[in-house]
Structures are given as C-alpha cells and as structure tokens.
TrEMBL record:
Chain segments annotated as transmembrane: 6-23, 30-49, 61-84
One cellular-component annotation, GO: NADH dehydrogenase complex
Any single GO BP term: ATP synthesis coupled electron transport
Entry EC no(s): 1.6.5.11
Protein name listed in UniProt: NADH-quinone oxidoreductase subunit NuoK
Organism: Halonotius roseus
One family name in Pfam for this protein: Oxidored_q2
Amino acid sequence: MVPPEYYLVLSAAIFCIGLFGILTRRNALYFLMSAELMLNAAVINLVAFSFQWGNLTGQTFALFVIALAAAEVAVGIGIVLVLYRNFGDVDVLNAATMRW
C-alpha cells in the first residue's frame, strides 16, 4: 500500500509545475494547460485524503472538480479561438487591447 504522503508530494509537484506555467507563459493554450494541471493536483489531494479517511466525500468532490475543469476547457477554447481570430496569435498580452 502506498502511503498518502507520496500522493501529496506528487500533487504538490504537479501544482508547482502548473503554477510555474501560469506565471511564465504568454500563450493562452499553455495557460489553460497549466490551470488544468493545478486542478488535477487538487483532485489528487481530494482522492488521497478520501482514501486515507475511508469515506467517499473526497471522491465526490473530485468528480465535481473534474466537471468544473471540463467546463473551464470549453470556455477557454472559445476565448482562445476569439483571440486567434481577432489578433492572429494566442498571446494573452494582446487581450488587454480587447477592452470595450
């Protein structure tokens, strides 16, 4: 049996990779992938604690987080397509010029 600490270290590593990607990348697709990594790290934490305590609450919340991530991808892809159509690039710094 794998101890829960291993899952927490894995989750922390994945979260840090996602945070690094959000803070350093300018491409909107990399930005979305980094946000997905951070959400997956949260799901790993929820499932690890659910397994440790022996109840299904964490796994239930993990399903909700996965559904939220799917909705975020759908909205994010729409935003990326609008960025590309308007500017010919998916650089997130160009989005500052899309104000009303």
